[in-house]
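The freezer alarm interrupted the setup, so I double-checked each line after restarting. Inputs confirmed:
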Amino acid sequence: MSHPSARPVPQPPPPATPRPADSRFAAALAGPRRKQAYFTPARIGIYLFLVTAAMFFLVPLYVMLVTSVKPMAEIRLGNIFAPPMAPTLAPWHNAWQAACTGLECEGIRGGFWNSVKITVPSVALSIALGAVNGYALSFWRPRGANALFAVLMIGAFIPGQVMLYPLVRALAAVELYSSLPGIVLVHIVFGMPMMTLLFRNYYASLPQELFKAARIDGGGFWRIFFELMLPMSTPVIVVAMIMQVTNIWNDFLLGLVFAGSDNLPMTVQLNNIINTTTGERLYNVNMAATILTSLVPLALYFFSGRWFVRGIANGAVKG
Amino acid sequence: MVAAPRKRVRAASLSAWIALVPMVATALGAYVLTILWTARVSVSSSRIFPSGDFVGLGQYERLFRNARWLLSLENLAIYGLLFIAACMVLGFLLAVFIDQKVAGEGVLRTVFLYPYAMSFVATGLVWQWILNPELGIQQVARHLGFGDFTFDWIVQQDKVLFTIVIATVWQASGLVMALLLSGLRGIDEELWKAARIDGIPKWRVYLSIVLPMLWPSLSTAFILLFVLVVKLFDAVVAMTQGGPGTASEVPAKFIMDYLFGRANIGLASAASMVLLLTVLAIVAPLYYARHKAMQRGVK
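Predicted 3D structure, all chains:
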């Protein structure tokens, strides 16, 4: 560190835009210096570490998949890592439409549709509100609004338990407790800090001149929003969607407290399937139900992995 | 172009305020009012229904005489330290190793991050199953000929907490990796060239120069993990239901039980307030420092 050239510590650019891995690869493969770096003990060590770590991360997925297609007779043999000898889809069938989620024994499909009914409006509305909030805060800057935004941001750190009971009472007072609109409203409330932050940061990165020009042309609040800002918001909307779908689909606590028995989301039903089973535990059915419950966020993640990573880095690092 | 007359400015900011009504309602109604309400109830004698009397800090005194609460606080402290330390170390190592221009980076990133897409309920259930002494790893090892191999932490009162650490670290360390990796990618190549010229070993550069430079990403990761620690509930319910006995009780579960199971909302509110104050005491200085650091960094 004595060398002066080690000093110019540059400030990192916004971390949301990592250097494209592909060009790094191309450069690495083209350069002769890179080539000799392969197959040294250090490289072998690197791969050894990464592969070992990857196995730790993949084991549960493997166990889940394998167990979900085994008949119970095979499971009783007691080797969770053994590949299935007689694969069967019966546990999946059972999990979907026959497993008992409490008193009812109609499988987890009801919970799936409940989760859809909760997630779709919650995601759509919380993104819409987040976009309007972010737009108003970063371009119109009404006086005093930033103080309220700060309150909202502190709210993001509050343990949900502090707000739970008063919210139950408030929703009960307006007869929304244990109802679909009630749980949607709760998700919007809990999602608002992150959504507002995300959109505020995105709009803050757009040039102010654009907005000023639109103002001079006589654009009003809503017109500028719908005709100018919203069409430019696709990247951040995708990120927001991934974050909110994952959060809301995976929620357990809020669904448990606010949804009411007719609207219990899949996560709550899954927990019921596993913890209320009397007699022999049907591990294969349980695992099939677990995979089914995780399917939507996992699919979203696998099909939009790049956006997912960006969304996490984006939504979390800035602010 | 005519300079915007006063009236127009006022009308515009009026529509901005109208657009912000949901945010104002949420900030004041859902966050401020609920906290005030909880604070008020925590100094009353409320049981099933909130009552308006004032009993001072009686609920807090009872709370801190409650063995289960003390245990759940202790559990949270131990769990939090282990969970955050493990996630940070593992996440940092994964990020550093992935950053060595390895083949298959995209696949590895996917593998390390996919658990984060799963719910804590699913995570808890899968790990409960893998750690189950009769069917999981212990049994597999015994079948392989290690006759008295024992790995039954999940049913041991003094070890059960570690199993929750394992499961949740599995779930969340990919997130730390993603954050730190994007931080690493922001560091200038020049730094590495300079270090190479000086003959500084790579690991020293990482420890002494890169790690301090990752401060914004590290503090973000810390805050996110810290919030997960405080909210720890789903995974415990799915994995151990607080057992064996009360060995894996955590404050969030304690509060839920007293709110809805034991109908003692006064005590539960006092517990919520303790939790809230703890969170603010730890997060606020850190958040402030990070905010300052980022302001200096960006501008």
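Quick read of the result. The first helix of chain B runs from residue 6 to 19.
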